Amino acid sequence: MTGPAGPPGEPGYRLYGDLAPWWPLISPPAQYREEAARLAAVLRSAAGDGPQTVLDLGCGGGHLAAHLKTAMTMTLVDLSPQMLAVSRALNPDCEHHRGDMRTIRLGRRFDAVLVHDAVDYMITEPDLRAVIATAYAHCRPGGLAVFAPDYTAETFRPGAGAGGGSDQAGRQASFRSWSADPDPADPWIQADYEFTLRAADGRTEVVRESHRLAAFPRATWARLLAGAGFTAGQDPPAGEPPAGAGPGQLFLGWRPA
Ligand SMILES: C[S@@+](CC[C@H](N)C(=O)[O-])C[C@H]1O[C@@H](n2cnc3c(N)ncnc32)[C@H](O)[C@@H]1O
Fold this sequence. Notes:
Layout: H1 23-26, H2 33-46, E1 53-57, H3 63-68, E2 73-78, H4 81-90, E3 95-98, E4 110-115, H5 125-138, E5 139-147, E6 159-166, E7 172-180, E8 188-198, E9 204-214, H6 218-228, E10 251-254
Parallel strand pairs: 1-2, 1-4, 2-3, 4-5
Antiparallel strand pairs: 5-10, 6-7, 7-8, 8-9
Helix pairs in contact: 5-6
The protein binds S-adenosylmethionine.
């Protein structure tokens, strides 16, 4: 299956296409509160008074941004028009752009650039290098880039998950997921999803799809960040998140002043 990290114009995953209106039920904004607080603390501690302007690459439904925007001005980019529509409904006060995080150039710089879990869809080293270059191009001198992959090669463990929710319109969604590393010799991992989607009129659809993600070694991250010109990143002082609270590691890069 072609993933959303394919060339612009290619079809992507249904989760970020026709199923995007279900995103707020599948991955509710409230679940991002704790992680947003942790990332806000990292941004503040690393950038003095904290960044005023933040570019969020791969914003998805804007669930993380919905929390961060209370403290900073968020500019949001995603490849999927359907996910951007979800984010615009939640964050009408934020500027949105459709674009590929590997190639987009907005022609201006930000105090910080954030690439959250969407970076997991960068499944080759050239893709990851391209996103890091995009972050560098949009960081002001002295600015900070924060990358928050769900996995690295060192931390990835096969596992299963589940979740879901409902809304006031009467829709219900639940999902189960399984993640595995079919070939430990390459950075690719596979996430298999099963979504059960019950519309307000009771019609129910079950959708299964597999996503190809990546878990790069920490050494690859360090090499690519340095190669782009970033000053070496380090783990934030905030420490590891609580279990289930999101990414287990961050990669930070400062653009030299
Ligand atoms: C897991 S969702 C992000 C959810 C987001 N953290 C939130 O708060 O709602 C992953 C997103 O990455 C986007 N994506 C994948 N490849 C991309 C690319 N090359 N450029 C921009 N966005 C991309 C998808 O369209 C999808 O919206």
